[in-house]
Every structure is written in C-alpha cells, then in structure tokens.
Amino acid sequence: xxxxxxxxxxxxxxxxxxxxxxxxxxxxxxxxxxxxxxxxxxxxxxxxxxxxxxxxxxxxxxxxxxxxxxxxxxxxxxx
Length: 79
Prior knowledge:
Strand content: over 45%
Number of helices: 0
C-alpha cells in the first residue's frame, strides 16, 4: 500500500579462516521504494545517511577478520 513502511535487514556472516578483503555491503532499493531518512543502522547503531545515494546503500567495512557478523537495517517507504 502506498505510503506504508517496510523494514529491511541484511545479515553478513564472515566465516572461514582468512580475512575478508575490502568488504562492502551494498543494496539498491527497487523503484517502488524510497529510503526513509535516518533509519540506517549497523549492528543496532545509527550510522547516518551519508552511506545512501539515490536509494542505494553502500557501507564500506574494509578488511574484516573471520567469525564476525554484521547486521544492517533500514526502513523504506512504498511510493
């Protein structure tokens, strides 16, 4: 329904023995949705909207050791 909000969650588990190099979490919202300002969190911590450009989320995490989990959440509104 137009104007309704949905919550997205992206979970990234790093496993294995090596380092994940140049890790980026990226997601383009469908045309039917628009990002809700100030709703982006990483592991339940607000990270602001500088990671959002034209309804595309880009979170640069760099090199990460194994056995870590990252959870990205944000809201989007149905156009």
